[in-house]
């Protein structure tokens, strides 16, 4: 691990010193931590809730802005990122939007792989986790261990080992009465809540099949600079490396799979099979991920979920989700249901779902009634990982086998140096681990 550091210091906590400090913790320190957990778990309306941002890219900056909007007595007091330039840009933008709510001096700006520890230990009450998904399990575990409420961006892991870790952490959060709100934002969309509730109430009859699609255009890419190491290049272009993003069916299409999982009462499928490849986006600057995936998930009751996603320029864009039943069909993105001669469409309130999730998070902290999205955010992430396992290997894989996978993606250590790009997965050749 490299050191984390504030942007105006040479270093603050190496991995070794952190472990030594933890091992030498006194009884007084443990009591103080317990008091901190108790205070943070139920804050009075007049208390200032201090927020720490870990991961200062576009999504992290947006999430921080939503957190600052969610409650009148909230302040951003610490920020951390792998890169100083990204942190400073985020801080400047947030200061322009929330001049009275951003109190992040230089000594609470932390940079490096260990920056998350410094943010968590800076006295914050709530942590926003928006680093690349690879880091989510470790960052979440550290936040909950320190007694912090968490907003965790999706997905929450890139491999089964990460999912297992997150499930354990979220169980611990329940014991501590801590809120964990997921960035799977469609669960906080009022129109989808009503639509799916009607499906659960039998509006389409017995579910026969589902179809979810996230066929999109290409996303951003930062051309490599001569002074970037392999690690820096990959981190700055994290979308295109499976160890960082999980591939785009995990990083992006997880939204679609989460809606399908929601419809199915979050019961996991028993198995899946699929196909995919890297046909158009083949240049080295796009790492080694695929540009299309098609997966069929099979449930114990015979229902099949047909899942498609694509990131290619010049193709039709289709983000849609359908539930087919014995009595009718629900269109989840249009919030409509057709059953025989009757039809229904949602006509109610439509607050911004990205804001809604933060509004509910901070309301839960104020009320002392924690929200814990841990189980469904973990299962939906695992569905996406299972799909990637199937497309990469060309095999039919059961849920149980996938969840027990020994695969752990990522380097053995985090350092600013050489980091080989794995070969593109080849179905029939790439092995399940």
Structural summary, described in words:
The chain is an alpha/beta fold. The chain contains 15 helices and 16 strands. A nine-stranded mixed beta sheet has the order 15-14-13-12-8-11-10-9-16.
Distance between the termini: 26 Å
Structural category is alpha/beta
Beta-strand percent range: 15-25%
CATH superfamily of the largest domain: Dihydrodipicolinate Reductase, domain 2
**Cα-based radius of gyration, to the nearest Å:** 22 Å
Fraction of residues in H or I helices: 25-40%
Question: Keywords for this structure?
Answer:
433 residues, alpha/beta, Rossmann fold, Dihydrodipicolinate Reductase, domain 2, 2 domains, nine-stranded mixed β-sheet, seven-stranded mixed β-sheet, 15 helices, globular, disordered N terminus
């Amino acid at each position: 691990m490299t050191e984390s550091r504030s942007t105006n210091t040479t270093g603050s906590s190496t991995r070794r010193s952190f472990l030594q400090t933890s091992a030498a913790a006194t009884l007084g320190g443990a009591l103080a931590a317990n008091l901190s957990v108790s205070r943070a778990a139920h804050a009075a309306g007049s208390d200032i809730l201090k927020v720490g941002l870990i991961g200062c890219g576009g999504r992290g900056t947006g999430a921080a802005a939503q957190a600052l909007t969610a409650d009148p007595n909230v302040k951003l007091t610490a920020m951390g990122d792998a890169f100083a330039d990204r942190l400073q840009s985020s801080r400047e933008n947030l200061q322009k939007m929330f001049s009275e709510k951003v109190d992040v001096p230089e000594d609470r700006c932390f940079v490096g792989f260990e920056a998350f520890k410094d943010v968590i230990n800076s006295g914050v009450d709530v942590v926003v986790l928006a680093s690349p998904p690879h880091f989510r399990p470790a960052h979440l575990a550290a936040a909950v261990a320190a007694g912090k409420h968490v907003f965790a961006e999706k997905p929450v892991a890139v491999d089964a080992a990460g999912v297992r870790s997150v499930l354990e952490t979220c169980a611990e959060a329940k014991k501590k009465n801590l809120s964990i709100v997921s960035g799977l934002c469609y669960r906080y969309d009022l129109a989808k809540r009503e639509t799916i509730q009607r499906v659960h109430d039998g509006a389409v009859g017995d579910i026969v099949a589902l179809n979810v699609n996230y066929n999109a255009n290409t996303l951003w890419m930062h051309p490599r600079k001569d002074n970037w190491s392999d690690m820096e290049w990959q981190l700055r272009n994290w979308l295109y490396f499976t160890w960082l993003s999980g591939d785009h069916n995990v990083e992006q299409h997880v939204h679609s799979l989460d809606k399908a999982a929601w419809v199915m009462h979050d019961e996991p499928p028993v198995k899946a099979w699929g196909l995919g490849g890297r046909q158009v986006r083949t240049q080295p600057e796009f790492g080694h991920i695929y540009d299309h995936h098609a997966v069929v998930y099979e449930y114990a009751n015979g229902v099949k979920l047909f899942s498609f996603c694509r990131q290619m320029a010049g193709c039709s864009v289709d983000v849609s989700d359908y539930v087919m039943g014995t009595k009718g069909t629900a269109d989840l993105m249009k919030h409509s249901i057709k059953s025989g001669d009757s039809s229904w469409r949602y006509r109610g309130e439509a607050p911004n779902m990205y804001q809604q999730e933060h509004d509910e998070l901070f309301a839960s902290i104020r009320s002392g009634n924690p929200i814990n999205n841990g189980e469904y955010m973990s299962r939906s992430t695992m569905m996406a990982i299972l799909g990637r396992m199937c497309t990469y290997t060309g095999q039919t894989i059961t849920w149980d086998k996938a969840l027990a996978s020994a695969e752990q993606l990522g380097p053995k250590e985090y350092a600013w140096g050489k980091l080989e790009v794995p070969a593109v997965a080849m179905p029939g050749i790439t092995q399940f681990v």
